[in-house]
Amino acid sequence: MDGRALILEGGGSRGLYTAGVLDAFLDYNIEFDNCYSVSAGATFGQNFITKQKKRTYDITMKYMNDWRYCSKRSLFLTGDMVGVKFVYDTLPNKLEPADYETFKKNPCRFYTVCANVETGEVEYLHVEDLKRDMDMVRASASLPIISRMVHINGKKYLDGGILDSIPAKYSLEHGNSKAVVILTQHKGFVKKPSSEVTYIKKLYGRKYPKFAEAAASRHVRYNEALAFIDEHEGKDVFVFRPKEPVEVARMELDREKLDKLYHDGYRDAVERMEELKQFLAK
């Protein structure tokens, strides 16, 4: 098929850049056939499929200091730093309703990238019904160490970024002719080995050795993905990324930084909108 893919990298609070780009897409009626979302890219990307402009921004700004949203207190009490009940139930079903019907009607197929903890392999889960399949979003965004594993159909999952942080290559190899990639780091960024690898090996190594091994080499796959994108940019890949290094922590609490990052994303998308339309029309 001649599909148009949207690729959403994770990055925690850096995803406010992604939210800005996606809201510009909504304003300019930019649509895709398939969306492959990773970690925070999944939690923010769902709002693009439901066509709820600024929902990501508004929720972040309104609840960022609420311990139920994300906190060490939540981690201590529940085993998840991101509050599962609050973020994946209370918010979408009561406080900030998700538009489940629009999600169902949107022809864009929405996938979340997840790491199968037992096999150490990546899986791309198709979210057909957002309300029913919300655990697929949660699984993709469940970071090792600070999250419990998510059980879906007898399988155990954690953050998909461990295995495929930027699935541009996957998207092009599976039926899409074009990929629009939204990154959350500036051009020239190189991922280094994570300091968390030692803790991951201790926590998961004995029972889930393949997952622990994969986590140790995450930076290699990440940098290979960037190299692939650089090679294909201007051909079958179109890239949005921050123009400057992002001085925003994974779990940032500085409102000014987050507001600026969101508006940077929106501005960058608007500035290149005609270029993007031409790319998608080829």
Task: Characterise this structure.
This protein is of the alpha/beta class and 282 residues long. Helix content is 45%, strand content 16%. The protein has helices spanning 15-27, 40-49, 55-63, 72-78, 84-95, 100-105, 134-140, 168-173, 197-204, 209-216, 218-232, 255-271, 273-281; strands at 3-8, 34-38, 109-116, 121-127, 150-152, 155-159, 176-182, 237-240. Strands 1, 2, 3, 4, 5, 6, 7 and 8 form an 8-stranded mixed beta sheet that branches. Helix 1 crosses helix 12. The longest helix has 17 residues, at 255-271. The mean pLDDT is 96.
Provide keyphrases for this structure.
single chain, 282 residues, alpha/beta, eight-stranded mixed sheet, 13 helices, 8 strands, 16% strand, globular
**Helix content range:** 40-55%
Measured on Cα atoms, how large is the radius of gyration? Answer: 18 Å
Tally of individual helices: 13
Mean residue pLDDT:
96
User: How far is the N terminus from the C terminus?
Assistant: 14 Å
Broad shape? globular
**Pairing-aware structural class of the strands and helices?**
alpha/beta
Strand portion: 15-25%
Brief summary:
With 282 residues, the chain is α/β, with parallel strands linked by helices. The protein has helices spanning 15-27, 40-49, 55-63, 72-78, 84-95, 100-105, 134-140, 168-173, 197-204, 209-216, 218-232, 255-271, 273-281; strands at residues 3-8, 34-38, 109-116, 121-127, 150-152, 155-159, 176-182, 237-240.
